[in-house]
Design brief:
With 494 residues, this protein is mostly helical. The protein has helices at 2-22, 27-42, 49-88, 97-112, 115-126, 130-155, 159-181, 193-201, 205-235, 243-260, 270-281, 285-289, 296-324, 327-330, 334-346, 349-360, 364-389, 393-400, 405-435, 448-456, 460-493. Helix content is 80%, strand content 0%.
């Protein structure tokens, strides 16, 4: 046991050192120029209230309404596709093995491609506008729900438990889709991201601050609603009223449809669709096998290092902030930390990327810092859920018997938290691998930069090779994550 622990520790340290070298991580540079990030963020506050008064309805509310519509419609359509995919991918229901393999392969492909990259692809096929964003979120949501759905349905015993889990996953993805929809405008797929990108480009930071404040309120309202519905979902399980959740979501959809009007879809660009399909089916094999710095293996390795360091950095800060945000330890004072963590979650990833590039310049170092900040909020939220669910009776029993504080925490608290913490970190690493691929849109390193360039220059064979690289890397990370979860379930069952 000690030998295996030593091997794991040495492996982690080596991975850390290699990642620091690959991403050009520099503490002196961060110390010297880190104040530029604080200065730029400080220029966003106080927000430009004159911007709010002059053109609030036209400049903010309309694209914000479109953002909510994109996320809500994409979630609903993705939920329907996910429900169908859950049934068709279930080995107990669909006995046609070949069809199941093909469907599961398609689910894995769409799950592994970042939403923003899907949206960019959709703009080539369906044109600029909301429908590209809606289709991208629909495909991503449907793929995620299909995978979670057929895995849960094959492992769960009760039909009611499967429905409960599916609706809980749908609500969680609704929260995530609101944040995803906020940046779709960066690639012309509708929503408030277009306005946000414009104000960032013109360095009108006080107006950026106003937009981020509005996004903060939207994310707060969405997470509050989702949390309320999840609690209501659990409470209504014995009353068999799960349909109420679907009704609430449909009501919101109808409300936004009334405000927005059903968006018109432009014609499908069949030439672009055929070119993309050809690039995916027959990618540039030379680029996939070459060891050059601009080839797929090197770019994937850089992306992996960015995601690894970003996840590690976010974990360190999330561990501390999750404790200070726990009501069990700090009472009402923890609310301030929770609001701070919500702020971390509400700022789009590309905004962080643009701010850090002003500190480090373009490159993977900016990507690491971006991934770290993006990881803090979501990891702290998962850690907080774990802290709130632990049983403190063993801790109090050890303390009452004279065991010192550190020993009591070590033997009564850490064993309860560690599996949940490791699961959250591995899950976040899986997400960061996909999110790191979109940092190329702002020049923050990784495989995203050449991918976006290849797509914009219509070099679809190169784009296909880079897309397959992202898919294979994300699939490998997902397989490792699933292997850990299964081994943990087996240990727990024993």
């Amino acid at each position: 046991m000690k030998w295996s622990y030593l091997v794991r520790s040495v492996t982690v340290v080596l991975c850390l050192l290699v990642s620091l070298w690959q991403t050009e991580f520099s503490l002196p540079l961060l110390w010297e120029r880190g104040h530029y990030f604080i200065d730029t963020a400080g220029r966003m506050f106080p927000p430009d209230t004159s911007f709010l008064k002059a053109s609030f309805l036209k400049a903010i509310l309309v694209p914000l309404r479109d953002t909510m519509y994109i996320s809500l419609l994409g979630t609903l359509l993705g939920g329907i596709i996910g429900a169908v995919g859950t049934v068709l991918c279930n080995g107990y229901i669909n006995q046609w093995k070949t069809a199941r393999i093909v469907l599961k392969a398609a689910v894995h492909v769409f799950r592994c491609i970042p939403v923003l990259i899907l949206a960019l692809l959709c703009t080539f096929v369906f044109g600029l506008g909301m429908w590209s964003g809606i289709i991208a979120i629909t495909l991503s949501t449907g793929a995620v729900l299909s995978r979670l759905g057929y895995e849960d349905s094959e492992n769960a015993d009760l039909h009611t438990a499967r429905v409960l889990e599916y609706l809980a996953n749908l609500l969680y993805l609704l929260e995530s889709n609101v944040r995803n929809a906020a940046v779709l405008g960066f690639v012309g797929a509708g929503g408030i991201g277009l306005l946000l990108n414009e104000k960032l480009a013109w360095r009108e930071y006080s107006k950026v601050g106003m937009i981020l404040c509005v996004l903060y309120l939207v994310v707060l309202a969405t997470e509050s609603l989702s949390g309320f519905l999840r609690v209501h979902l659990v409470e209504s399980e014995t009353k068999h009223k799960k349909w109420q959740i679907s009704v609430v979501l449909c009501v919101f959809f109808i409300f936004f449809s009334f405000l927005t009007g059903f968006p018109a879809m432009s014609g499908v660009n069949k030439t672009a669709l055929a070119s993309i399909a050809e690039g995916v089916v027959s990618p540039d094999i030379t680029m996939m096998l070459s060891l050059a710095t601009d080839a797929v293996p090197s770019l994937l390795f850089e992306t992996l290092c960015i995601a690894f360091l970003g996840t590690l950095g976010g974990t360190v800060f999330a561990l501390l902030l999750s404790v200070f945000s726990c009501f069990r330890f700090f009472g009402f004072a923890a609310l301030l930390t929770r609001l701070l963590l919500l702020m971390f979650r509400s700022v789009p990833v590309l905004v962080y990327g643009l701010l850090w590039i002003r500190v480090t310049g373009p490159g993977p170092f900016a990507g690491v810092l971006t991934m770290a900040l993006c990881s803090i909020g979501l990891l702290a939220k998962r850690f907080l859920i774990a802290i709130d669910s632990i049983d403190l009776k063993p801790y109090y029993a050890l303390r009452a018997s004279g065991v010192n504080l550190l020993a009591a925490v070590r033997w009564a608290v850490v064993p309860q938290l560690l599996p949940h913490y490791l699961s959250a970190v591995i899950y976040r690493m899986d997400i960061n691998l996909r999110e790191a691929a979109v940092l190329g849109l702002v020049g923050a390193g990784g495989i995203g930069t050449p991918l976006v360039l290849a797509m914009n220059h219509y070099e679809w064979k190169q784009a296909g090779a880079l897309l397959w690289g992202i898919i294979l890397l994300a699939a490998a990370a997902g397989a490792v994550s699933e292997k850990y979860r299964r081994s943990y379930r087996l240990r727990k069952a024993r």
